[in-house]
Design a protein that fits this description.
The complex is a heterotrimer. Chain B is mainly alpha-helical. Chain B is built from three helices and no strands. Chain C is globular, with a radius of gyration of 21 Å. The chains are: A mainly alpha, B mainly alpha, C mainly alpha. The interface between A and C is medium-sized, with 24 and 36 residues.
């Protein structure tokens, strides 16, 4: 078990170093996804399968898609074409691909060992759910206010100007 | 988990946190700064899960879920600001967009 | 959760309901005046709910929040300050084009975050309150998004704020890893022998948490955002950042560290004392060099938080009463000062340069008098609230023999004489003949004028008759 952990840790650190040193934003994002995958597997080996799944679904899934979405919005015209051409360059794909294959192999090893792991201290979704909707109930409700504030803030800040704000007369 | 000492888990979280901090300080492009912040928040979440598994409690995982919610809210506001900055000033660079002194 | 718990939480429930209610009203129809009125009314209702909450039998509501007298005092202060900010904002936003309704929604959610922070008793509520406050503030600071300075200030605050929040979370994780609990009382009770590996991990955890706390308070190594954000943000939002956000965090700091007896950890005391001294020195010396009123107030606010840390370091009954008194005097003067800046601002930007205030005493003597009172109180001239507050802090510090910080406090505080008086002198100088006169109607419309008048009276009242107020504090906090 411990060998898996150190290998995953190495993948996570290497991928993160590449995130902060890369010049291409989309490429850095790919490495960040690899890093998040590695951390998700670490959660799994630590006996936290629920957050491992959420790390994939929300972090690597939803939040990273948000980033890609904004990058696509911002990369218009000439820059986007060049970007597209560079995407076809296989050299860009090699790094993330190798790291992902390492993760895949580890996933296979970890899953085949699952029975042994379950004997340890696994804190499953049920316990997390009981805690979240029991003593931490107010926390869940406050998190909804937090998301509401984020939603309203993002809506207002990214909105296009109204006619009045552009200094024109309202139609 | 028992075969991996907690200190090593926290050490990994610390290394990832440090890398994220370096990214925030060293990069000038706001997209990369936001990515680095995600790395830092994720590292803090990892530290909580490691700590929770040490005590066999669900608290660490619950905190991770809340960090997830916070990261989503924070990043959506950050990206909205980025879109507005790009729309007005055609740049996502902090230095190019620094009319404020200091 | 029991009925008693719901009663104790009633001010927070009113705020949360108001946030959702304002959103629904906006969805039906946009009307600036109605949204503002609804916001002010719900703040009043939340204030009226305070005595009801005080009568509740259950003060500990779930493990997360504790609504004791201490919390209720600061929640009341926060609600009153937000009321002033909302009234000032109405006059300010009337001058601007665009949709203003979301502003009040975000203001209410930010206030809710501050109140949760004040009542928090657990890392979960600490973190959530802080983030609700921060995320709302990111949007409020960048609210006037046609101004470049606003967008830049918001981005700067967001990036530094998120990074410092990550540091805070990491510190919390270390403490939790060491002690297995996130409850303040249990953390304070657990005391590993000094010098052991456990104690080192705890100290690192507290250090990282201080980064997050220091950022929100704009204390010296973490103050770099303050001048830019103060300058870029709309004036009422700057007032909010400077008062509610800092006040809530300071209330939390006292609640978190007070039961722990920080004097058992000499290294922690040295770090906090160093931060206090550095904040006072950097704040006061940098304020001397500024040519922008908002940046000057940013540095003066850094120095004021340094003074508050001196009171925090001093222990004893005097210090317990000195902190709330100082915060009230600081709140009143800061809200008033930014209220004047906001009232002097037009659609193109805030009145920031000193020149915008030249000859103000002739064009608008009331506004000039109010600004003078606020600045004198911030300086700590006798007969203002600021003097009594500073005197109180100094007394508490001398009694606990916190010599070096209190020495720095009075010496560097004297520099304020130069930078605050510079603005006052400019206001009473004759305006150049060719300067265009701003139309008087936009200078101070009714809501902000009323708030400024009340704040001015409060500043003077606190300075002339402090005894009544000290009595209120002692019945609410020091029992």
């Amino acid at each position: 078990m411990s060998a898996t952990f150190y290998l995953l840790a190495a993948v996570a650190v290497i991928a993160t170093v590449l995130v902060i040193t890369h010049t291409n934003a989309v490429h850095a994002l790919l490495y960040l996804i690899v890093s998040l995958l590695a951390v998700a597997l670490i959660f799994f080996t630590l006996g936290a399968p629920f957050v491992a799944a959420l790390e994939l679904i929300i972090y690597a899934g939803a939040i990273m898609v948000l980033f890609i979405f904004v990058m696509m919005l911002l990369n218009l015209g000439q820059a986007a074409t060049q970007q597209e051409r560079r995407w076809l360059d296989p050299r860009l794909w090699v790094g993330p691909a190798i790291l992902t294959i390492v993760l895949l192999a580890e996933l296979a090893v970890t899953l085949s060992n699952t029975n042994r792991l379950a004997g340890g201290s696994v804190v499953g979704p049920k316990q997390v759910g009981i805690l979240m909707f029991g003593p931490y109930l107010l926390g869940v409700e406050l998190a909804s206010i937090l998301l509401l504030a984020g939603l309203v803030g993002a809506y207002h800040l990214a909105r296009r100007d109204t006619r009045r704000e552009r200094g024109e007369k309202p139609a | 988990m028992s075969s991996v000492p907690m200190a090593h888990g926290l050490l990994l979280a610390g290394v990832l946190f440090g890398l994220g901090l370096v990214g925030v300080v060293a990069r000038r492009n706001i997209v990369f700064m936001l990515l680095s912040i995600e790395v830092m928040l994720n590292a803090a979440g990892l530290a909580f899960v490691v700590a929770g598994s040490r005590w066999g409690q669900a608290d660490g995982q619950a905190m991770f879920l809340l960090i997830l919610a916070m990261a989503a809210a924070e990043v959506s506001v950050g990206l909205a600001l980025l879109i507005q900055l790009h729309r007005r000033f055609k740049t996502v660079d902090v230095d190019a967009a620094s009319n404020l002194q200091g | 959760m029991t009925t008693g718990g719901l009663i104790a939480l009633s001010p927070l429930i009113v705020l949360a309901a108001a946030t959702v209610g304002v959103m629904l009203v906006i969805a039906l129809d946009r009307d600036h005046k109605r949204t503002a009125a609804l916001t002010l009314a719900s703040l009043v209702v939340a204030l009226l709910a305070l005595p009801i909450a005080a009568s509740a039998t259950t003060r500990q509501v779930t493990p997360l929040l504790v609504v004791d007298d201490y919390a209720l005092f600061y929640i009341g202060l926060t609600l009153a300050a937000t009321f002033a900010v909302a009234a000032l904002s109405y006059s300010y936003l009337e001058n601007l084009a665009g949709q203003h309704d979301e502003y009040y929604l975000l203001l209410l959610s930010a206030t809710l975050g501050a109140c949760v922070l004040i009542a928090s008793n657990h890392f979960v509520s600490f973190f959530l309150g802080l983030e609700i406050l921060s995320v709302s503030l990111y949007a409020l600071i960048g609210y006037v998004r046609t101004r470049q300075a606003c967008i830049e200030a918001a981005l700067k605050y967001l990036i530094l704020g998120a990074a410092s929040a990550a540091a805070l979370l990491f510190g919390m994780a270390l403490i939790y890893a060491e002690l297995g609990t996130m409850d303040y009382a249990q953390i304070a009770a657990a005391r590993p022998p000094p010098g052991s590996a456990d104690a080192v991990l705890l100290l690192v955890g507290w250090g990282l948490m201080l980064v997050g706390i220091g950022f929100k308070l704009a204390l010296v190594p973490f103050h770099l955002w303050a001048p830019d954000v103060y300058q870029g943000a709309p004036a009422p939002v700057t007032a909010f950042v400077s008062t509610v956000s800092k006040g809530a965090m300071f209330a939390l700091l006292v609640r978190f560290f007070a039961p722990m007896n920080i004097h058992a950890y000499p290294s922690l005391v040295v770090v906090i004392a160093a931060i206090a001294v550095a904040s006072m020195l950097v704040g006061n010396f940098s304020a001397l060099l500024q040519t922008s009123v908002k940046r000057l107030l940013a540095f003066s606010s850094i120095a004021h938080l340094g003074y508050l840390l001196v009171a925090f370091l001093a222990s004893g009954a005097l210090a317990v009463a000195a902190v709330p008194f100082y915060l009230v005097a600081y709140f009143a003067a800061t809200l008033g000062a930014f209220g004047v800046v906001g009232a002097r601002s037009g659609p193109d930007g805030d009145a920031d340069g000193f020149e915008a205030y030249r000859g103000l005493s002739r064009r608008n003597p009331w506004l000039a008098a109010a600004f003078t009172a606020m600045l004198l109180s911030l300086l700590g001239i006798p007969l203002t609230g600021g003097f009594v507050a500073k005197f109180y802090v100094g007394l508490a510090a001398v009694q606990s023999a916190v010599w070096i910080p209190v020495f720095v406090m009075f010496l560097s505080g004297a520099l304020g004489l130069f930078y605050y008086m510079r603005i006052v002198v400019i206001m009473y100088m004759r305006a150049p003949a060719d300067q265009p006169i701003t139309p008087a109607a936009s200078l101070a419309s009714r809501p902000s004028g009323a708030v400024l008048a009340i704040l001015t009276l409060l500043v003077v009242w606190l300075g002339v008759f402090p005894a009544l107020f000290i009595e209120i504090i002692q019945t609410w906090i020091a029992r």
